[in-house]
Amino acid sequence: MSVAAPPALLRLLHGLTAALLPLAWLSGWVVYSLYDGRWGRLPQPISADWIDIHGSIGVALWPVALLFVGYALTAGRWRLRRAANALPLLALVLAVGSGKLMQEDWLRDGQLHHLAYSLHLLAWLLIALAVPLHLLALWRRGGPALLASMLRWR
Q: CA–CA distance from 149 to each of 21, 28, 49, 77, 144 (Å)?
């Protein structure tokens, strides 16, 4: 069965987001483990300035997310009727928006009470739930052919 490939702009923005988001999520996990850890820590501490690494990934993700959300709300708005597409986008907006509101010294100083940080943690959890849901919905809708079409350049 033949599956139509998504539009080129969607593929580009989605691909950049898909490359940066796991890096942001994983580096955020390390930052959480080092500076917060109220609900658990990584078993082995990782040394480096992870707040700066996480922030740099966030800075790279910001313009990509802005363009991706703009595309989704205009040319791709019909795709947002599906919860499996809307929820990851909402989580992305919440993560990037709350990240922009945060100050990196908060965690270094042990200030875990800020609303922006709580929203950032919520976004981290939503992404952990929404991305697998999104992939499962794609698998159910188009199977391996649809997923493979997203990995092809043409």
A: 20, 30, 38, 21, 8
DSSP3 helix / strand / coil % (the chain, rounded to 5): 75, 0, 25
Six-digit token string for 14: 């989605």
59-98 tens-digit pLDDT: 999 999 999 999 999 998 999 999 999 999 999 999 999 9
Q: Residue 38: CB partners within 8 Å, gap ≥ 6?
A: 112
Nearest residue to 72 (alpha-carbon basis) of 88, 49, 89: 89
Instruction: Report residue 143 as tokens.
Output: 């199977």
H helix or E strand, kind and range, residue 148: helix 115-151
- Which of 71, 66, 60 lies closest to 19 in space, CA to CA? 60
What confidence tens digit (pLDDT) does each residue in 100-139 have?
A: 999 989 999 999 999 999 999 999 999 999 999 999 998 9
Residues ≥6 apart with Cβ < 8 Å to 29: 42, 124
